[in-house]
Amino acid sequence: MAQRIDVKDLNIYYGDFLAVAGVEMSVEPRSVTAFIGPSGCGKSTFLRTLNRMHEVIPGAHVEGTVAMDGVDLYGAGIDPVAVRRQVGMVFQRPNPFPTMSIAENVLAGIKLNNKRISKSDADETVERALTSANLWNEVKDRLNRPGSGLSGGQQQRLCIARAIAVKPQVLLMDEPCSALDPISTLAIEDLVSELKADYTIVIVTHNMQQAARVSDRTAFFNLKATGQPGRLVEIDDTPTIFSSPREQATEDYISGRFG
Amino acid sequence: MASPATAMTPPVTPDPPPRRRRSRTTDRGLDRAFRYLAVGSGMLILATLASVAIFLVLEALPALTHDDLASEIAWIPEGGNLGDVVGPLIFGTILAAIVSLGLAVPVAVGIALFISHYAPRRMASALGYVVDLLAAIPSVVFGLWGVLVLAPKVQPVWQFLVDYFGWIPLFAGDEHGNASNPPRVLMTTALVLAVMILPIITAVSREVFLQTPRLHEEAALALGATRWELIRMAVLPFGRSGVTSAAMLGLGRALGETMAVLMILSPGFLYSFKLLVASQQQTIAANIAAKFNDADDIGRSALIATGLALFVITLLVNLGARAIVARRKDFSGAN
């Protein structure tokens, strides 16, 4: 249920503007890979190419390959909709569907994949997904209430439950804690550590301590100047990045001597 | 992403210290002026509404309190009273409005979705402009178009409906099993009304659909939703109350539309669901326009009484719409 991702020579564009250039990296299955770097360096942009969400912006496109277990996600005849069903995503701001109840939110992806699901299967899926997202005990008595009535941290865990309910191969998280308080952040971080037993997880974060706490490997992105494309500076095991990075730029960034 | 130009902006010089007292009093004064302006506008609309209601009640009173209207007014049947005419008029008005709404809303929502989520940007704005232009056509022109252009074209279609779907009461034919020819029938009227209310419903729906939060659209896309599934999961539920409001605006216009109905519909005063047969129904507004010039004082009062009925219906429709929207407030996305 978890797959490796190999990215080769990937250039990412917004229209004619080259936003991220020449990314080469591999993401190991059943591990957490963190992307760190300054704002505007292309971490989130790159993350969104891993489930073909980048191209929903008009004019946005990529060159290069992103292979999941050897299959190029950008190959001819690959349906982006099918890719997104394999690669789940959690966004910066919690975004449960406001018109759906908690249970309906969890089942939203499943309803897309196969329209018909029996009541008992549905209940089981809701419980499994919410339990995995460490939310079941808090919401089990109000599954039919709107998801927008939950706290920010609960909403974000609901979004994680929604993403993992469809059992994706990979889970992408785009700064999932940046809108949350420290307690909720801790809950999400614990959850990430548990989920990596089953999923390949890629997480973008602005918080270097978070990257150090949750990830197995860390990638550092940077850009030379505004208007220049962002680049992958280096990717290595997390302890290595934070203790003895190969590149001076990484060292400067993680030690706060940046810019 | 910041443009390189921002880096070259000269350092911001601190503003000179503001003259505190004066600026504060101006702000207060402005604040107060705006408050009065807002409250005044609100009151003005209430006063207008109240004065219209009072006018209708006062003017209608002579007819409402009269014992024997039938002897004074030609269009009230022998031995009958005002209710015998107002009832069918209310029925006809609501039937025409509902049928036109039923025709217009699906098309309007379709056009709005096409503009907001399917069409390329340039085409979308052109199409939006064309739809808005429809709203600028005077209703008398729509009436002429309905009679001269549309009616001959739709008659065979109405005949087809009678032939094959005549078992549905709405599509029943006349005593010979035919749709009326010329088709000065409620269905033709409703079709023209539908074209007339299309722009307002489309414009409001489009604005609502365009405001669907990007977050929710991306949530649906990231789950692997196709364009249609995205619309069903994120756009339509979000736009629900807005589309309801838009439909109510359209319904209001359809209820009150006069000229087009007057020109197309052959009037009748029956409680009849036959949409394809002439001389079955009439609407309140068209009836007032048709009879007002020849009416004497008591006749005019009776017509105004029917206008009062229209006023009440419109109020009730709007209240009903509010109730529908409020029922699912928790799930509206406004919290």
TrEMBL record, chain A:
SMART domains: AAA (SM00382)
GO CC annotation terms, alphabetical: membrane
All copies of domain ABC transporter, residue ranges: 5-248
Any GO molecular function: phosphate transmembrane transporter activity
GO process annotations (BP): phosphate ion transmembrane transport
Superkingdom of source: Bacteria
Record Pfam families: ABC_tran
Keywords of this entry: ATP-binding, Nucleotide-binding, Translocase, Transport
InterPro entries listed in its UniProt record: AAA+_ATPase, ABC_transporter-like_ATP-bd, ABC_transporter-like_CS, P-loop_NTPase, PstB-like
NCBIfam families (UniProt xref): 3a0107s01c2
Protein name: Phosphate import ATP-binding protein PstB
Gene, per the UniProt record: pstB
UniProtKB/TrEMBL annotation, chain B:
Localization annotation: Cell membrane
GO biological process: phosphate ion transport
Keyword Transmembrane helix: yes
Keyword DNA damage: no
Cellular component annotations (GO), alphabetically ordered: plasma membrane
GO MF: phosphate transmembrane transporter activity
Location of the ABC transmembrane type-1 domain: 90-321
Low complexity bias spans: 1-10
Keyword annotations of the record: Cell membrane, Membrane, Phosphate transport, Transmembrane, Transmembrane helix, Transport
Membrane topology term: Multi-pass membrane protein
Highest taxon in the source lineage: Bacteria
Transmembrane segments annotated in the record for this chain: 33-58, 89-115, 127-151, 185-205, 259-278, 298-319
Stretches for region Disordered: 1-25
NCBIfam families: phosphate_pstC (TIGR02138)
Family under the similarity heading: Belongs to the binding-protein-dependent transport system permease family. CysTW subfamily.
Function of the protein: Part of the binding-protein-dependent transport system for phosphate; probably responsible for the translocation of the substrate across the membrane.
Protein name: Phosphate transport system permease protein
Organism of origin: Cellulomonas composti
